[in-house]
Amino acid sequence: MGKKKESGLLLENRRAHYEYFLSDFLVAGLVLTGTEIKSLRKRDASISDAYIYVKGGEAFIANMHIAPYKEGNLFNVDHLRDRKLLLTKKEIRKLEASLKQGGYTCVPTKLFLNRGLAKCEIALAKGKKAYDRRETIKKRDLEREMERSGHRSGDY
C-alpha cells in the first residue's frame, strides 16, 4: 500500500482579509514536530494573531497557536513557539525588503496540507483604516442583497 495522499484546507485567516489590504501571496512550508502535525490534522490551531518576521536570513511565523496533542506526553512542545518557514533565499530577500519598507507586515492567510506536508499561504499586508473596513462591510452586504434578490454583481 502506498502513502495516503492527504490534501485540504485546515485553517483560514478571515480576519486578515478584513483588517488588511493583502498582496504578494507566497506558499511556504512549515517546520513542525510530529505532535504538532497531529494537532494540525485535528484542526486544533489558530493563525488569527500570527505574523511573519525575518531574522538572520530565515523567515519565522510567530504567535501561531497549535494546541498540545492529547497523547503527545513529553514530545509536546510550546504551543506558541516560533516556527521556521521554508522559503527560497530569493523569496526571503524580497519579503525582508518589503517589510523594511515600512507600513507593511506579513500575515498567514491559509494553512493547508499538500500531500501530507503542512503548508502556509502568506501575504504582504498593509493595514486598513476604519473607513476602509466600513467600505468592505458595505460592499459585502450589497453583494449579499443582490444575491438574495436574484441578481448577480455584473447584471445591473
List keywords for this structure.
two-stranded antiparallel sheet, globular, 156 residues, single chain, alpha+beta
Tell me about this structure.
- This protein has 156 residues and is of the alpha+beta class.
- A seven-stranded antiparallel sheet has the order 1-8-9-2-7-5-4. A two-stranded antiparallel sheet has the order 3-6.
Beta-strand percent range: 35-45%
- Assembly of the depicted chains: single chain
Largest sheet: 7 strands, antiparallel
Q: Give the CA-CA distance, first to last residue.
A: 55 Å
Topology:
Blueprint: E1 7-12, H1 14-19, E2 20-30, H2 34-41, E3 45-46, E4 51-55, E5 58-62, E6 65-66, E7 83-86, H3 89-100, E8 104-114, E9 117-127, H4 130-148
Antiparallel strand pairs: 1-8, 2-7, 2-9, 3-6, 4-5, 5-7, 8-9
Give a quick precis of the structure.
With 156 residues, this protein is an alpha+beta fold. It is 29% helix and 37% strand.
